[in-house]
Design a protein that fits this description.
187 residues, alpha+beta, four-stranded antiparallel sheet, 35% helix
């Protein structure tokens, strides 16, 4: 006959506690492992979607645009950027643009003359009164319609104050356009 209303669980030996802990750990690892096994596949699908939407993050600039850029940026024939068949990315393009047009030392008319063969769009910020407070020129220098190179200028001196580009996914605070300014209406 039981003297207590509640049954007591039998005490586990040290070996029993170890087996219970080990079994619990294996169960947790097994359950987590099932979810973790899907992560690489999910990452691959995400990266594939991003590469299709933002091709400039993974693809090279085509030969036609490389040739035009070598001339516009006044690069030497033996420059790796200008070598036929050489893989040139938008990162290398931005490096070449910043070397050709040093910030705070280049006027926008110099940029406009050098890049006159490329589509450009003007982006301005205005006060409610209509006064322009900033101006940026967005150039489409590659075959990637979502990748623009921006030249922010000082309104008084017309000197280039900043050179930037469309950011890759995850590197931007805002939405990334699939088509940037000058590419609007381009085939």
């Amino acid at each position: 006959m039981l003297r207590s209303r509640y049954l007591k669980a039998p005490a586990l030996s040290v070996g029993g506690k170890v087996r219970l802990a080990f079994g619990s750990l294996l169960c947790v690892i097994g359950l987590a492992g099932c979810g973790l096994a899907q992560i690489p596949d999910n990452i691959h699908r995400y990266e594939t979607r991003q590469a299709a939407r933002y091709p400039w993050t993974v693809e090279a600039i085509n030969e036609e645009h490389k040739t035009k850029l070598c001339q516009a940026l006044q690069l030497e024939i033996n420059d790796p950027f200008c070598q036929a068949g050489a893989r040139v990315t938008t990162t290398e393009l931005m490096h070449a643009v910043k070397q050709r047009f040093p910030v705070n030392r280049t006027t926008y008319p110099e940029v406009a003359t050098a890049l006159q063969g490329f589509p450009v769009a003007v982006e301005e910020s205005k006060l409610p009164t209509g006064e322009v407070t900033s101006r940026s020129y967005a150039y489409l220098l590659t075959q990637f319609h979502g990748f623009c190179t921006y030249f922010d200028i000082n309104l008084d001196t017309q000197v280039v104050e900043r050179i930037d580009n469309t950011k890759a996914p995850g590197l931007s605070d805002g939405p990334i356009p699939e088509v940037c300014g000058p590419a609007m209406g381009q085939p």
